[in-house]
């Protein structure tokens, strides 16, 4: 909760300080912090998402700028309006969009949209903003150092966006399933943590999840199942061998406690891979071949009996 408040308040403050004058530094600092916190205040009080919408942003900025103009008569209306709107949009709405999602086009689109590249738990954004504001106040270069702080935050966001793209590409290469939906989201507090991204990969026949580092070069798989129709999470994939035309799965049947194999060889749908080859799968659920000791002994005994009969007949 505290991290979330600082996340928005410091970001809104550093954005509004770009509009400040030497005599009104604290006014714009407080205005930016208040503007960035306003959407959550109304959401907590009235349980609505109206002020989390880009459509409502200019109207809210005009209303509050008009109120402040009546108090601070010498301050230009457009400067108040611009600082409030910038802090409102960039300090809250777009920050929500890139961490936990936001209904940014409410009420026309009520579903939350998201492009998760910043973990909600990271304090890095507000630490950068607070450090830049403190330095600006100390050295009396508030607009210059605020701009430097914003640039640093944008570089961090750009790094996270690039990391998300690299992890996503690495996962598509690791799980080349037909029509696979892969969701990647940040989990670490700091970008230099060993495993700071998590993922879910799902298709009609597979389900996988795990963690990855920022480049996708190190992936730790925590769950990988073949989801046979009507079976649920029963067949845990332990190994799989990919060829040009098929793939073979070695699974552990958690219901019967034995190793089973599935050979997908039906050439039905081809999906291009990064190396130019084609990954194929079957439309029908595969038949599993159990490999238990009892079955193997029975097969060997039957084979030996057939050989004995052939010898006797000859």
Automatic annotation (TrEMBL):
Record's keyword terms, sorted: Membrane, Transmembrane, Transmembrane helix
InterPro entries: YdjM-like
A Pfam family reported for this protein in Swiss-Prot or TrEMBL: YdjM
Keyword RNA-binding among UniProt keywords: no
Transmembrane helix found in the keyword field: yes
Domain of life: Bacteria
Transmembrane intervals: 12-38, 50-68, 80-98, 118-137, 144-163
Protein name: Metal-dependent hydrolase
Species of the source: Thermobacillus xylanilyticus
